[in-house]
Amino acid sequence: MRMTIADTEIKAAWENNPSVKALEEMCRDGELTIQMSRYGGFEQVGSIGKSLPRKDVQTKTSPGDIVLYSGSQMVMFYGSNSWAYTRLGRITGCTKKEIRKLLGTKDVTVTLDAR
Q1: Contact at 8 Å (CB) between 23 and 104?
Q2: Which of 60, 61, 44, 26 is nearest to 100 (CA)?
Q3: Residue 25 phi/psi, 5° resolution?
Q4: Stated pTM of the model
Q5: C-alpha 42, offset from chain centre
Q6: How far apart are CA 52 and CA 33, in angstroms?
Q7: pLDDT tens column, 29-51
Q8: Which residues have C-beta within 8 Å of that of residue 95, sequence separation ≥ 6?
């Protein structure tokens, strides 16, 4: 699955789980656009538009982690937190500083597609 954040294509290592499979299925008919908002000074949060399968476990996150919250919210971290999430994946090929610059300065739009 390809991901673009604010016009920048980002590489991600996606988990092999039912949540990611459902997210990929949503992208098969075209791009999925998620409006993200900064929250708490450490994350971006946006509605996926429907509930996905989830298996939440207590998780300590770090910059670059991508998780599912409450079944219908995608969360991308530029800081860290500890909460019950379902892991979706992780941004790869970026430093913590690059992730903070990309996600930590303003609200962003994330686009996913199945290509």
Answers
A1: no
A2: 44
A3: -60, -40
A4: 0.96
A5: 13
A6: 16
A7: 899 999 999 999 999 999 999 99
A8: none
